[in-house]
């Protein structure tokens, strides 16, 4: 029942929504070099990260920045054709929008941890932070390599990650 009407069952542990799990599995497979059979066009699947970031609501923004960051890292390391430049442009536009939406004011945290340097781990963090149920699962079952939830959602940390990703995309 919980999957049909989120919030309707109190005794169900939090879980990553099915559509987010589907996206996570597909992008992870691409980044690991073994796209799934359902992957028709790798560039199109990767471009979804830019689209999702451009359309992200406030509560989805941190997660979508981290997903797009993981895709940007992958593109930086793996891509080498015209499709890549189009994707880089889409990602850059999406990061610019995100930076404009984020409050980059003073931060109560002394320091922020880095995102995991592994693209699939950074992707995992982002996909979990992109939805309320994903954030609940992230908090209940934290991974040792993942940044703590409160600092991962810090607008200053998210803005710095978006700025860094934008700079990296523009310098390639």
Describe the structure.
The chain has 172 residues and is mainly α. It is 62% helix and 0% strand. It has helices at residues 18-31, 42-54, 61-78, 82-101, 119-129, 132-140, 149-152, 155-171. Helix 2 packs antiparallel against helix 3 (61-78). The radius of gyration is 16 Å and the shape is globular.
Kindly report how far apart the N and C termini lie: 47 Å
Mean pLDDT reading: 89
The share of residues in extended strands comes to under 5%
- Described by the principal axes of the CA atoms, the overall outline is globular
Number of helices: 8
The helix content, as a percent range, equals 55-70%
Report the count of strand segments: 0
Derived from helix and strand composition plus strand pairing, the structural class reads mainly alpha
Q: Nutshell version of this structure?
A:
This protein is mainly alpha-helical and 172 residues long. It contains 8 helices and no strands. It has helices at residues 18-31, 42-54, 61-78, 82-101, 119-129, 132-140, 149-152, 155-171.
